[in-house]
Amino acid sequence: MDSISLIRTPIEAELRDFKALFDSSLSSSNALLDSVVSHIRQRNGKMMRPVLVLLVARLYGAICPSTLHAAVSLELLHTASLVHDDVVDESTERRGQLSVNAIFNNKVAVLTGDYLLATSLVHAELTNSHRIIQLVSTLGQDLADGELLQLSNVSNHSFSEEVYFDVIRKKTAALFAACTKAAAFSVGVGEGEAELARLLGEYIGICFQIKDDIFDYFDNREIGKPTGNDMLEGKLTLPALYVLNTTKNDEAQELAIKVKEGTATPDEIARLISFIKENGGIEYAVQTMNVYKQKAFDLLASLPESDICVALRAYLDYVVDREK
User: Fold this and answer.
1) Which long-range contacts (CB under 8 A, 24 or more apart) does 109-114 make?
2) Residue 42: is it exposed, middle or buried by C-beta count within 10 angstroms (0-12/13-18/19+)?
């Protein structure tokens, strides 16, 4: 059995219920909105976050309507943030597909993102859980805060791993943590179990983002990110930060400052990427990612063994081993 089948098999029926609810949440009589939403739905992908919600809910109880509405709410909020991020970053591609702002325009993209955000809150309310409503609202704050923190970090000349982890905790890990905690809340668990679920999601999210950052050092058109795309946007991620801080190489640091200032040429970015790869940046990022993976495994080891634990370990393996 392949990893995706292993992950999805315990929740196959509930995943179909989620898809039906998600699709119905996006139906609209507005022709323009319907066109944009149809475009967005083409990149549904493997639905990693909804799958995580369903698995963690099953870990603690039976999936119920509250679980499905929580999964829809969080996926809509995530989708809204991606649409808005593409406008902020002036991106024309998202995972190998043209972005909403590239096909339509910034106005349509922003308004569509707003619509998705509002619909997310509707489904949060439909969970009938004050704790989930609060969780979704706080997540919206964290995602925006993470974007602003990342933007402010571009302009400073420090190479801080601490700031990097602050950004990814708010931009990526917070979303995965909200998925697992909302799942736990949806089946009525207590605060202790919900905190374990939150930590599990945070560790998964950190692994997910580090893996995404590693992709940026290798040309892969399938994910819509040519080599050095993050650096073109002024972003220095974990492999670069490690090498810059350990080698203290003057030329590399000068190139890194130019990256942050947005003045580095493609040739200079290529030179910096080669230097990072030659000095152990990728290996360090992989090692760090595996530390967080093991932390997640340790949390799962504290729970009774079940097919859901097997599926969650397969989920973690997939996050770390995926090729796009």
Assistant:
1) 109/36, 109/83, 109/84, 110/83, 110/84, 112/33, 112/36, 112/37, 112/40, 112/83, 113/80, 113/81, 113/83, 113/84, 113/87, 114/80
2) exposed
Q: Is the pTM of this model over 0.85?
A: yes
CB 139 within 8 A of CB 77: yes
Tokens of 144: 């925006």
Burial class (CB in 10 A: 0-12, 13-18, 19+), 135: buried
**Is residue 13 predicted with pLDDT exceeding 50?**
yes
| pLDDT band (50, 70, 90) for residue 1 | low
Residue 283 three-state SS? helix
Q: What is the pLDDT of residues 289-320, one digit of tens each?
A: 999 999 999 999 999 999 999 999 999 999 99
Long-range contacts of the stretch 168-171 (C-beta < 8 A, 24+): 168/205, 168/206, 168/209, 168/210, 169/202, 169/205, 169/206, 170/142, 170/143, 170/145, 170/146, 171/142, 171/143, 171/146, 171/147, 171/209
Confidence of residue 82 (pLDDT cuts 50, 70, 90): confident
Q: Which string of b and e fits 182-193 if b means at least 16 CB within 10 Å?
A: bbbbbbebeeeb
- In angstroms, rounded to a whole number, what is the distance separating the alpha carbons of residues 298 and 143? 27
Tokens of 285: 């990022």
The Cα-based distances of 249 to 116, 154, 217, 242, 322 in angstroms read 46, 20, 19, 12, 32
Helix, coil or strand: residue 98: strand
- Report residue 35 as tokens: 């066109």
Q: Which CATH architecture has domain 3-321?
A: Orthogonal Bundle (1.10)
207: which 2 tokens? 């692994």
Residue 94: DSSP 8-state: E
